[in-house]
Automatic annotation (TrEMBL):
<protein>
    <recommendedName>
        <fullName>F-box domain-containing protein</fullName>
    </recommendedName>
</protein>
<dbReference type="InterPro" id="IPR001810">
    <property type="entry name" value="F-box_dom"/>
</dbReference>
<feature type="domain" description="F-box">
    <location>
        <begin position="4"/>
        <end position="50"/>
    </location>
</feature>
<dbReference type="InterPro" id="IPR012885">
    <property type="entry name" value="F-box_Sdz-33"/>
</dbReference>
<dbReference type="Pfam" id="PF00646">
    <property type="entry name" value="F-box"/>
</dbReference>
<dbReference type="Pfam" id="PF07735">
    <property type="entry name" value="FBA_2"/>
</dbReference>
<dbReference type="InterPro" id="IPR032675">
    <property type="entry name" value="LRR_dom_sf"/>
</dbReference>
Length: 324
């Protein structure tokens, strides 16, 4: 006959070894049992975390904690109550699947901040991705989220920002808190230069009217550059592309700049046109987590043998370059 076994009677060393085989949600549930369990877990486990405010998701190794409003309880009825923030607050929860735990809160913004703080300390986590793309999240929640993560690390792989509530100063402050190494995405209009450093391999800016040739030249180390709503001119683009042609952009694999100030007949490198209307082929390449496609390009070969596909769409002012 099987007898129940109280695992907390095991020595601390044995529990630490046991907890290494459990996933983040299982460890979270065990941490609810006792202060001893919480202390052991926070002292022995370390998961990489991905944070996305638009969905209220905090993800560890494909295990997701999602904070949502109580109005969703009718669709997904709660199955239990869990405690957070040092057992000072409680919330209803529901398992959406074995990998996803829903956590209900009266104010999802406050709940997101509270649950994030709780999990960061429980799992002694570092953050690989921070997505602040909930456009209506209050600035103080965004900034406190950044401060929580910044207190534990100075570098981050990926940072994405989209907000209607944060000022230029807020966004500039957030970006300058970290050295972004892989991907920086900004979906926000700036009336002036926000003084943002470009340290990542990939840069995407949805409203880039403030970007000048000086800014573009500071991206010469990048692998991917994507700018929308740009005001870069023919002279600006010619200057940058000639820099690439002379080998000053050694990492560049893909460039896409959509500017409303480029001339309809823009071309470069002495090519008669940047659109192949005869072959009409398309090319796709997997680069830095994206798969851009370039249609009807012309081929250009540098003096050092590097081959690239180049295309200019005069209708939307989009100049593309893809290194093959």
């Amino acid at each position: 006959m099987n007898q129940p076994f109280t695992i907390f009677l095991l020595p601390t060393v044995a529990l630490r070894h046991l907890f290494q085989f459990l996933n983040p949600i299982e460890l979270f549930e065990i941490s609810q049992c006792s202060r001893k369990a919480t202390n052991i877990i926070s002292g022995t486990t370390r998961f990489e975390m991905s944070v996305e405010s638009s969905s209220g998701s905090i993800v560890f190794n494909n295990y997701s904690f999602m904070v949502i409003g109580r109005h969703c309880q009718a669709e997904y009825p709660p199955t239990g109550i869990r405690v957070f923030d040092g057992n000072t607050v409680s919330a209803d929860v529901c398992y959406l699947s074995e990998n996803e735990l829903l956590i209900y809160w009266d104010c999802p913004y406050i709940g997101f901040k509270t649950v994030l703080s709780h999990l960061v300390h429980l799992f002694n986590s570092t953050t690989s991705h921070l997505g602040l793309k909930n456009v209506s999240m209050p600035p103080h929640i965004c900034l406190s989220t950044v401060e929580l993560i910044r207190n534990r690390q100075t570098e981050i792989d990926s940072l994405a920002i989209s907000s209607t509530t944060m000022s230029v100063e807020d966004v500039s402050r957030i970006v300058n808190q970290f050295k972004v190494t892989e991907s920086l995405e900004i979906y926000q209009y700036f009336p002036s230069d926000p003084n943002i450093p470009f340290t990542s391999k990939s840069v995407y800016i949805s409203s880039s009217s403030w970007i000048t040739l000086k800014h573009l030249n500071s991206m010469k180390h990048c692998t991917v550059i994507r700018l929308r709503e740009s005001t870069l001119t023919d002279d600006d683009m010619t200057s940058f592309l000639e820099s690439w042609n002379s080998g000053e952009c050694p990492n560049l694999q893909y460039l896409s700049i959509r500017s409303n100030t480029l001339g309809k007949n823009f071309t470069v490198f002495g090519l008669p046109s940047l659109q192949d209307e005869v072959n009409k082929q398309w090319f796709e390449k997997r680069i830095c987590g994206i798969s851009p496609i370039i249609y009807c390009p012309v081929e250009y070969k540098r003096d050092d043998g590097v081959v690239a596909k180049i295309h200019f769409d005069k209708n939307d002012g989009d100049i593309q370059l893809m290194v093959m």
